[in-house]
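User: I'm writing a short methods note and want a consistent example. For DUF262 domain-containing protein, I'll paste the sequence; you return only the structure tokens, no commentary, since I'll be parsing the reply automatically.
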Amino acid sequence: MADLHIGKQTIYELFSGIKNKKFIIPDYQRPYKWDKEKCETLWNDIEQFSDTNPTEDDFYFLGTIVSFENDDKNQEIIDGQQRITSFTLLLRAFYKKLEDATKSDNEIEGLKRQLKPCLWNVNKISGDVDNYSDMKVHSLVIDDEERDIFHSIIETGNVVEEAKDNYSKNYKFFKEQCDKYAMNNPTRWKELYVTILNHCIILPIKCESQDTALTIFSTLNDRGMPLSDSDIFKAKLYSFQKEEEKSKFIDSWKEISAICKKGKVSIDELFRYYSHIIRARNGDTSKEIGLRKFYSQNNYSHLRTPNLLPEIKLLALFWEHINSDIEIRDELKYNLSFESRKYLSCLKCYTNEYWKYVVSVFFIRYKDSSNFDNIFQGFIKKVVSYFLVKYLEEPSVNSIKDDVFKNCALILGQLKTPSSDLADKNRKLYEKLENGLIELINDRKKLTRSMLLLNAYLTEGQNDLIDEHVEIEHIFPRKWQDTNYNGWSSKDTEIYLEKCGNKILFEKKLNIQAGNGYFNQKKGKYAQSKIQEVLNLSKYPNEDWLKTDIENRDKEIKERLLAFFKDNLK
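Assistant:
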């Protein structure tokens, strides 16, 4: 690459080498996330290296920084913002130690002269700092409060003791370590400063364009450095914006991030869901490819999809509504009822996330319908039926992929499949269940929770959502003392203990309190449950839970589930 410049530099060379310019951490970057543990590792590594008395040719490698020269002739950091921020805090802690020295000498003044151009732009004649707010590293990232905290620390060297942000906590840590090292090594502590400035090296990768920097950024992170796909998408989307639209884009991204946090969904997941919307619109039912590769095709053409960010925001709001108790926003037309939510609850503990792709595509198709929830109820019943039954038939994610891709395209009208074909396919699925449903449920352990949850919701009188933290209760306990209790033997327990008819969902707290007592002892706790099926069990007339009871409950569950699947696999 003609516009790529790589060369190792010491910390002193890196920071002091950009005169009257800055390292800019742009607003589209991630917030500062380094915690005390990472700072401890950095400090310990440097301290141990310094204690080896490095010679002139000995260096300690601190990592890479990828940047490009922006329109203001500043180096805009694409990768390494966490690292460069931490180095700056460390250097400022060193300078604060020198400032606070009770007795100044030529060595202290010499070190201060070396540190000043690493932290601030200095007067080219005097070498002094004319303006301490003219710092070498300037952050535009995250909210103003935290950005201002970072700038204030570098400008003043002071910090609020009670502050909980990462900037303040890490600066205090470095300052404490400087003081501690100087106290324990009164004759060597200045050597540590020299080691950091002149023997710790960075590999700066300086690019002349943002595109090149992003390519390097992507390549480095594909090889193991931590980075989310959405970080690359954000940077690329930012580069697409006109100058007057960039601030609005950042605000929109922050809003989506906040919605995702409340809705317990990641931005990466939203881009995954949205990729299936794009595929469905294009009638693409081919094999799925990696998320980053998908969006980078044809010079990131998919990221230029009209209304991409507004629709991703709508998806975020939808999944926030699904995953939390937050009421739907007034400007949106849908509001999911208990009927819809109970089936979503069954899918939330499903073995993979492919159902979310179909649901997301359906949402985009019908989001503006005035009767969205009514339409969604019929749809989600079919979804839960298909995914549960298909996994019973073949417990593999590969068995559902093709059907998911085709149904996504069908929903958006980009694939024409005769309804009779689908009906015939679903009818054959149902026929496989009629005789062996319970046996299949017993075999498919990963599906037990979803099946028990669906059965509980189908029980007459269950009119409230079941807490997601419920546990699977064994009605006849897994741990029992008597070797032959009321006709039960060890052989019987092996056969009956894990049968579907011996399992029921039960609130965690009550389940703990009920312990491994026998049936009649646990009825009192069953009576306190808010799950209708458990309440029914508390009123069971018999004092013991026998093999025939498990067999009868197996039949009840089978009849209830088969009736539901028959109605919805059409």
